[in-house]
Amino acid sequence: MNIQDFIRDIPDFPKPGILFKDITPLLGNYEALTSCASKLANLSPRDIKVDKVIGVESRGFIIGGMIAERLEAGFIPVRKKGKLPYEVKSKTYDLEYGDDTVEIHIDAIKPGEHVLIHDDVLATGGTAKAVCDLVEELGGIVVQCNFIMTLDFLNGSDKLKYPVASLLSY
Question: Using CA atoms, how far apart are residues 58 and 105, in angstroms rounded to an integer?
Fold first, then answer.
């Protein structure tokens, strides 16, 4: 199944000059959704047992949970500031138009656990790097960052010191 057939281009969203890659058609099609999750799980390292899969708010939650199930791993949501109910560790990072903060529960990862990070898209890399930093601060080991798609022209993978895998590249 060609996942790219289920990615819709939305011009000038969220602002003029941006071509938004919309995954909602993918999410709405059972065959495409399950195929995507299986393909992403198959991208994970074969020589390392993944203990936890992180899904980054919000689209990373959907397929991240499906990847965790396929890898027989736990699932951890990483959320925007103020959304998690328990004690958190936070990381603020720069955006092209300001900054943002992501948070993780302080007990989500045990030292030495192998963690796969999943989000829908790798753009500038700021969010993914912040999540990697949180994993390291909790004593986890990032084994890979995986994405449905990478926007290679934004060089986001340059900010990451971990293997990056994706199904699509633009």
Answer: 16
Total tally of structural domains belonging to the chain: 1
Pick from 114, 119, 121, 123: which is nearest to 131 by CA? Answer: 119
- What is each CA distance from 120 to 61, 80, 107, 111, in whole angstroms? 9, 16, 25, 26
Local structure of residue 28 (DSSP, 8 states): T
| Pairing between β-strand 88-95 and β-strand 98-105 as defined by DSSP bridges | antiparallel
Tell me the whole-structure pTM to 2 decimals. Answer: 0.95
Is residue 42 a part of any domain in this protein?
no
pLDDT tens digits, one per residue of 108-129: 999 999 999 999 999 999 999 9
Residues with catalytic function: 59, 96
The CATH number linked to 153 is 3.40.50.2020
- For residue range 56-109, what is the model confidence (pLDDT) as tens digits? 999 999 999 999 999 999 999 999 999 999 999 999 998 767 799 999 999 999
In a domain, 95, yes or no: yes
* Sequence-ordered list of residues with C-beta below 8 angstroms from that of 31, at least 6 positions apart, any chain: 1
